[in-house]
Amino acid sequence: MSIEVRLEEIEEQELPPVDYRWDADTDILTAALRPAGVAEGLSGSVDIQGPDGAWIMLEVTGGRVASVEIAVWPDVKTVDTLRLPAENGAVRLRVPSRPSQPGLAAVEVDTTIRAVADKAERTIHFRIGPQRSSRAMRIARDLMVEVDARSRVAGLWLLNVPPFPATS
User: Fold this and answer.
1) Burial annotation 110-126 (CB, 10 A radius, 16+ → b, else e)
2) What whole-number distance in Å separates Cα of residue 148 and Cα of residue 154?
3) Is residue 15 part of a domain?
4) Residue 133's domain spans which residues?
5) Contacts within 8 Å (CB) and 24+ apart, 76-80
6) What is the domain count for the chain?
7) Tens digits of residue pLDDT in 140-163
8) Is 26 part of a structural domain of the chain?
9) What pLDDT, in 10s, does the model give residues 76-118?
């Protein structure tokens, strides 16, 4: 199963900010967005689960991504420099309700999740599903989504992630 989305082009100044928050006790990273305006579509969660236990949750309100939560991390490959993909504009990403299940509040997707981060772990790329051709678009100031030719989510880019809090 995959996550099909709809994209609406917007002006860059319409991109919502991202508030990152680390939970030091659980290693959970949350990227909360503050989307503006009224929206329609799925309200609930989209849980992406990898066979290795990796787990990403998209909280969706009125069809719009309200937050991304990484609760169980895949193995993260670290590279010296992580090159961002070419951006294809700013979009509002919508997760539509399914006509056959309009009241459904949770969707689970079982697929592979791979993560690559730069050395400072300030930029993290999550590839969702098999590697395939996709285009990257900004859905928030510090969050990009990759979408394939069939309008399915292929990856997420978290940008300007704050460092994990020091523990004593």
Assistant:
1) ebebbbebbeeeebbbb
2) 6
3) yes
4) 6-158
5) 76/115, 76/116, 76/117, 76/121, 76/124, 77/114, 77/115, 77/116, 77/117, 78/116, 78/117, 78/118, 78/119, 78/121, 79/116, 79/117, 79/118, 79/119, 80/118, 80/119
6) 1
7) 999 999 999 999 999 999 999 999
8) yes
9) 899 998 999 998 999 988 887 655 455 556 788 899 999 999 9
